Amino acid sequence: MIISSNQVAGILKTYQEQNNVAKAGKANKGESARSPQQPDEVILSSQVQTFGSVLQSVRNLSDVRQDKVDAYSKAIEEGSYHVAGKAIADKMIGRVIADNIGE
């Protein structure tokens, strides 16, 4: 999946707008009469707790696949690593198309 810079900019803009609305809402609530409030409580199901622990395990994994890095490094050093020009052109064209989506 290719994510264009325009898509990222749109997401950041939406997030910023939502954040501004939330801050404005909190400011308006602060002006109203204050009453004692009970603390919020969240109870997570066992499935969500399991998902959270799995997600944390995945986040702790390395982003680098050292076996791939070693194989490509060796091929480059030996001069046996070659990339087809068509493959490079296809990636470049795909990037331009993705960047222009939504304009």
Keywords for this entry:
0% strand; 103 residues; mainly alpha
Short note summarizing the structure:
This protein is an all-alpha fold and 103 residues long. It has a domain of 39 residues.
Description of the structure:
By secondary structure, the chain is mainly α. The chain has a domain at 65-103. The protein contains four helices and no strands. The two termini are 18 Å apart.
List the helices and strands and how they pair.
Layout: H1 5-31, H2 46-59, H3 66-78, H4 85-100
Number of strands: 0
**What is the straight-line distance between the termini?**
18 Å
Which whole number gives the mean pLDDT? 84
The main pleated sheet reads as:
none
Give the fraction of residues assigned to helices.
55-70%
Low-confidence stretches: none
Computed structural class = mainly alpha
Radius of gyration: 24 Å
Strand content: under 5%
Q: Helix count?
A: 4
Query: Globular, elongated, flat, extended or rod-shaped: what is the shape?
Result: flat
Write the element-wise H/E pattern from the N-terminal end onward: HHHH
